[in-house]
């Protein structure tokens, strides 16, 4: 039975995200694409959705689908490689086209990521350029994009501002032969925890979406050097234990609508 306080909480829960600027990196496929689809249904007319990835065709295809489904939603695609120095500026210049007076909330989803070369162990990573390249895309770009967006939309403009880091269990636990990925995810988690301490009005969430049936999973279960890990990933797949993006995105959206998580927290799909 629902208690009085639960029903009060339920009535406070938002039904949508209002008129928002919503930026999603890695929106061309997998979790990011699904997130774009779900978010688009919860944005009021006049909202702006910025989709970022390298695959122009996939972004345009998504733009066409979403535009046909949602009247009054402005969709902008940024075709950029977040590992390159000019990519963050490309996203910021699209974001600059939206004035804070035209929206009442801001969402930035740092979702884009790559697994890195999981076919090798730590001792083989002697090439500084290779490591820097990985960290540039998976760590530096998320920090610099987040910082740039917060400068464009500072606290004093009175927006509800929310930054989500799509995280992983790998931010917390070491997985053999996944040194780049685990390092990047751990660094990103800490980055967003620091941000939450610094910006009191900002809502910051590290969300670990669980094992998803996406291209990243296929790559992981095919290329992982560590035999135990590779076998357990293959078993998760063959036993149907992977999650659909829809189910995991659904949980994230619920958390964001309820909006009562501790800012800077790491929430895992299986903890919710
Ligand atoms: N799949 C899982 O089991 C799992 C588990 C835990 C956490 N996660 C996390 O969930 C998020 C989404 O993963 P996913 O499984 O959906 O991965 P995915 O299917 O591989 O999709 C990754 C997305 O990131 C984009 N991307 C990759 N490199 C990029 C670059 N250099 N510049 C710009 N965009 C780039 C890709 O687009 P383009 O290729 O078009 O650039 C794509 O849209 C990631 O942060 C991942 O770490 C996934």
Labels describing this entry:
272 residues, alpha/beta, Rossmann fold, seven-stranded parallel beta sheet, 7 strands, binds NADP nicotinamide-adenine-dinucleotide phosphate, SDR_fam, Sepiapterin reductase, cytoplasm
Describe the 3D structure:
This protein is of the alpha/beta class and 272 residues long. It has one domain (18-271): NAD(P)-binding Rossmann-like Domain (Rossmann fold), CATH 3.40.50.720. The chain has helices at 4-12, 30-40, 56-69, 87-95, 128-152, 179-198, 215-223, 227-238, 245-258; strands at residues 20-25, 48-53, 74-79, 105-110, 160-166, 203-208, 265-268. It has a seven-stranded parallel β-sheet with strand order 3-2-1-4-5-6-7, with helices on both faces. Strand 4 (105-110), helix 5 (128-152) and strand 5 form a beta-alpha-beta unit. Helix 4 (87-95) runs parallel beside helix 5, helix 5 (128-152) runs parallel beside helix 6 (179-198) and helix 7 (215-223) packs across helix 8. It is globular. The structure holds NADP nicotinamide-adenine-dinucleotide phosphate. NADP nicotinamide-adenine-dinucleotide phosphate binds next to helix 2 and helix 7.
Quick structural overview:
The chain has 272 residues and is an alpha/beta fold. The protein has helices spanning 4-12, 30-40, 56-69, 87-95, 128-152, 179-198, 215-223, 227-238, 245-258; strands at 20-25, 48-53, 74-79, 105-110, 160-166, 203-208, 265-268. The radius of gyration is 19 Å and the shape is globular.
